[in-house]
Design goal:
The complex is a heterotrimer of chains A (161), B (633) and C (101).
Chain A: H1 2-22, H2 26-46, H3 50-75, H4 87-108, H5 123-131, H6 135-156
Helix pairs in contact in A: 1-2, 2-3
Chain B: H1 10-22, H2 28-55, E1 63-73, E2 76-84, H3 86-109, H4 116-135, H5 139-157, H6 164-195, H7 200-209, H8 214-231, H9 240-243, H10 249-258, H11 263-270, H12 272-277, H13 279-300, H14 306-326, H15 330-357, H16 375-389, H17 395-409, H18 413-438, H19 446-451, H20 457-472, H21 488-493, H22 507-534, H23 537-545, H24 547-554, H25 559-608, H26 613-632
Antiparallel strand pairs in B: 1-2
Chain C: H1 5-25, H2 29-54, H3 59-88
Helix pairs in contact in C: 1-2, 2-3
Classes of the chains: A mainly alpha (161), B mainly alpha (633), C mainly alpha (101).
Chain lengths: 161, 633, 101
């Protein structure tokens, strides 16, 4: 039964990303990505990371992609931008990407354990982890967010001329 | 008493060092006292050492003193060591004695020169190098002295370096010497490989024990003789000596008459076991010597510069010395070296006195009749001329006769005849010089006549002393006609010089030979008298009759021009070619090329930096694929 | 029966490759940036799946941090894109080559 959910979510995710690739309109791409990230959140939930699933939806799909949409609207391009003209670049990069795919697959064969592991980590446990073992990364990341916040504002502020 | 011999080179060395370092702040008076005093000390030490040697037995072998170990490389040793034996004694006496007199003379001659201190510092340095040369107990140290005198010769020939001709002459001397030294070095290397050491005692021992075969001895001897031709101005490397007259006259007297140029003769005499072992080498030495004697004498016949005549005369007389050594009469060769040192330096210094009196004039065509104005110069000059011409009872007669007699006794009649011909010419050109300078009509420029003055005592007294020795020095080597034991000189040298060749002459033959020498001398003088006093027109008419001969002689057989065309110009052209073709194109090309390659690489690489992020990303991607591939497979 | 980890892994690989292709196909900055986000997420997925299979319990905390940092990075990146647009009046990457040479 879970398999079906998995495949549904997987197909949704892959489909939207494909749509993003082929779309000419950035806004469309952004919205498609929102869909993709949401389904990804669902996949996280399938993996037993419930908290993370929600975080993914809220932050990634909800905040980051919204940011993208804001910027797209601010830039306000009239016409869409067509795809890359130089065909050989596309072909080369697709080929190389597939090569990389093959290499990773080859490397990973037999290395992926089949065991499913526990059902998952509850938020309580996650919280405890965050505040004990990963306290330093936690605090530093919060400072990082502050820095990003301030930085973004400073960067984009219009000069008082 | 002879133990002090190792100190002999050091007073002049010390003086030279002080003068070089502090000369600028020393007063002229101090410089004079120090420079001449140093040589005087060496002279005293030489006399003491010589005295000590007189009392010693002749079987003792040379006195040796090692100052410090110098070259030690595996089995090869060359120490800074001196040796003292009769030959060395003779040489140091000549060097310090004549050297001292010339130092004193230079006080007067160079009195107005602004390089006074520099002159004496070089002169002292020369004394040091020459004394090292004659006192060295091994050939490597001797070579140090050999090169040292060559250096001082360069410095002193080019003393007035602002004159281009002087600077060129200095260079010429040094370079031609160097060519000879190449032969010397190769010979030395052969010697070292065969004998294993360059000590003279070891070499003598190797010859005696037969370690050196006759063939190898010939090779080594000939190579070393090449060095001697360079240093002692024999054919073919004599071309530097006439040009060396650019230097001040005391330099010509000391270096190019009495001491440095005799180093080659000394070397041959010192290595007499080696040269005696090889008959072909001895022949070569004798033939070259005789040929040079005659060849140079012909060139002296027509020279107009007073110093050039004396220069060619020196070359000629050196030829006689080598003739003597070549036929095995090493003692005779050294004997002539000693007498020649006296009368040739006398002649040069007297010529210098004439030049000084005439405020620098050296052309004999502008002299004449100076006899009454410069009596104190004329008399010694005349003594020197008589001595060199081989007139009996003066020193030159005894020494030249010793050489010619030995040559005849060895059966080398051709060489004897050449020597005799040379003697005629010697007398002729010397008296031509005398007549043109001191006799006959006055051809002085009014300027010169106005300033004419006799030289100061400090210059004329050494002349007198040298004249004295030019007369008496011969009496230590009386010919065998007066008894076998009369040749004190040869007997004194016996520990060092083993006589070679066993020609013996009957007393009658020897008497005839002496008569022939005397006749040759007087013939030359008479012809000269006829040409220049009785019939002054004769030289001109002769020159007109045989213009080509006259031209050939006056232009020194065009040897310098030939050398320039055949050797120098091709070398220069070749060097230029190599420079443009190889140095500029290949070497510079390679360097510039590598720089250009670096630049090219830079440009190629910067073509990759297109500025487009996507292009960089492509490279990233390819890199990831490549690295993963390498890691996996 | 739980879903085998390899399924998630292959999915993440597919998403990653799609992200790469998207990066090279698109001609404007924003879309390329979005492709990068896709790649990031695929990596998160792979990490979570494999960690769960290997029994590594801390993976969630780590992915948490990844998401947070990605957010910060996205905000700064977009600010820069805005600045570039202001300066060059265009976000086509073909116009942005002032770092040439």
């Amino acid at each position: 039964m879970m398999i079906i959910v998995f495949f549904a979510l997987a197909i949704m995710c892959t489909g939207s990303v494909l749509g993003m690739v082929f779309s000419r309109n950035q806004a469309t791409s952004a919205l498609l990505l929102v869909l993709a990230f949401a389904s990804l959140g669902g996949l996280f939930g399938l993996l037993g990371a419930g908290f993370l699933a929600v975080v993914q939806v809220i932050i990634y799909a909800g905040a980051i992609m919204v940011l993208f949409i804001f910027v797209i609207m601010m830039i306000n391009l009239r016409e869409g931008i067509s795809r890359e003209k130089r065909a050989w670049t596309i072909v080369l990069s697709c080929a190389t990407a597939l090569v990389i795919l093959g290499e990773i697959l080859f490397a990973a064969r037999g290395a992926v354990p089949e065991a499913a592991g526990e059902a998952g980590v509850t938020p309580t446990e996650l919280g405890r982890l965050l505040f004990t073992k990963y306290l330093y990364p936690f605090e530093i990341t919060s400072v990082l967010i502050l820095a990003a916040l301030v930085g973004a504002i400073v960067l984009v502020k219009k000069r008082e001329s | 008493m002879a133990d002090v011999f190792w100190l002999i080179p050091f007073p002049p060395a010390l003086s030279a060092l002080v003068l070089i370092l502090f000369g600028r702040v020393l007063s002229k008076r101090w410089v004079t006292i120090q420079a001449c005093g140093a040589v005087f000390v060496s002279l005293v030490l030489s006399l003491l050492s010589f005295g000590g040697l007189l009392g010693a037995s002749s079987e003792a072998g040379p006195l040796l003193k090692t100052l410090f170990p110098w070259i030690r490389a595996g089995a090869f040793r060359a120490d800074f060591a001196f040796q003292f034996d009769p030959l060395a004694a003779v040489m140091v006496l000549v060097v310090t004695g004549v050297g001292f007199l010339i130092h004193v003379y230079s006080v007067g001659y160079m009195a107005h020169d602004k390089g006074y201190t520099r002159f004496f510092s070089y002169l002292n340095l020369f004394m040091f190098a020459m004394l090292i040369l004659v006192l060295a107990s091994n050939m490597v140290l001797m070579f140090v002295g050999w090169e040292g005198v060559g250096l001082c010769s360069y410095l002193l020939i080019g003393f007035w370096f602002e004159r281009k001709s002087a600077a060129d002459a200095g260079k010429k001397a040094f370079i031609v010497n160097r060519i000879g030294d190449a032969g010397f070095l190769i010979g030395l290397l052969f010697l070292l490989t065969v004998v294993g050491s360059s000590d003279f005692t070891a070499i003598g021992g190797a010859v005696q024990s037969g370690t050196i075969g006759a063939g190898l001895a010939t090779l080594i001897a000939l190579l070393l003789f090449v060095g001697a031709t360079g240093k002692s101005a024999q054919i073919p490397l004599y071309i530097w000596l006439p040009d060396a007259m650019e230097g001040p006259t005391p330099v010509s007297a000391l270096i190019h008459a009495a001491t440095m140029v005799t180093a080659g003769v000394y070397m041959v005499a010192r290595l007499n076991p080696l040269f005696s072992l090889s008959v072909p080498a001895g022949s070569v030495v004798a033939i070259v010597g005789a040929a040079t004697a005659v060849f140079a004498a012909t060139m002296a016949l027509t020279q107009n510069d007073i110093k050039r005549v004396l220069a060619y005369s020196t070359i000629s007389q050196l030829g006689y010395m080598f003739l003597g050594c070549g036929v095995g009469a090493y003692a005779a060769g050294i004997f002539h070296l000693v007498t020649h040192a006296f009368f040739k330096s006398l002649l040069f210094l007297s010529a210098g006195s004439v030049i000084h009196a005439l405020s620098g004039e050296q052309d004999m065509r502008k002299m004449g009749g100076l006899r009454k104005y410069l009596p104190r110069t004329y008399k010694p000059f005349l003594v020197g001329a008589i001595a060199i011409s081989g007139v009996p009872f003066l020193s030159g007669f005894f020494s030249k006769d010793a050489i010619l007699t030995s040559a005849f006794a060895q059966g080398r009649y051709a060489l004897w005849a050449l020597g005799l011909a040379g003697a005629v010419m010697t007398a002729f050109y010397m008296f031509r010089l005398i007549f043109l300078t001191f006799h006959g009509e006055e051809r002085l420029t009014p300027e010169a006549k106005h300033h004419l003055h006799e030289s100061p005592k400090v210059m004329t007294v050494p002349l007198a002393i040298l004249a004295f020795f030019s007369i008496v020095a011969g009496y230590v080597g009386l010919p065998a006609i007066l008894g076998e034991r009369a040749d004190l000189f040869r007997r004194f040298l016996e520990p060092a010089i083993k006589p070679a060749g066993d020609g013996h002459l009957s007393l009658g033959s020897e008497g005839l030979l002496i008569l022939a020498s005397v006749a040759a001398a007087f013939l030359g003088i008479l012809i000269s008298y006829w040409f220049y006093i009785r019939n002054p027109r004769v030289p001109e008419t002769l020159a007109a009759r045989l213009p080509w001969a006259h031209k050939l002689l006056t232009n020194k057989y065009f040897v310098d021009e030939a050398v320039g065309a055949v050797i120098i110009r091709p070398l220069v052209r070749g060097s230029e070619l190599v420079y443009t073709g190889f140095d500029l194109k290949v070497i510079d090309g390679a360097l510039n090329g590598s720089a250009a390659v670096a630049g090219l690489m830079g440009r190629v690489l910067s073509a990759f930096q297109t500025g487009f992020v996507k292009d960089y990303a492509v490279v990233f991607l390819l890199g990831i694929a490549l690295i993963l591939g390498v890691l996996l497979f | 029966m739980s879903i085998p980890a390899s399924y998630f892994f292959i999915l993440s690989l597919v998403l990653f490759v799609l992200g790469i292709i998207a990066f090279f196909v698109k001609r404007d900055l924003i879309s390329q940036f979005m492709a990068v986000e896709v790649m990031l997420n695929s990596a998160n997925l792979a990490f979570l799946a494999l960690a769960r299979a290997a029994g590594f319990a801390d993976a969630q905390a780590i992915v948490f941090f990844v998401i947070t940092v990605a957010a910060a990075e996205a905000s700064i990146g977009l600010a820069i894109v805005l600045l570039i647009f202001r300066r060059k009046k265009s976000i086509r990457t073909a116009d942005l080559n002032s770092m040439k040479g």
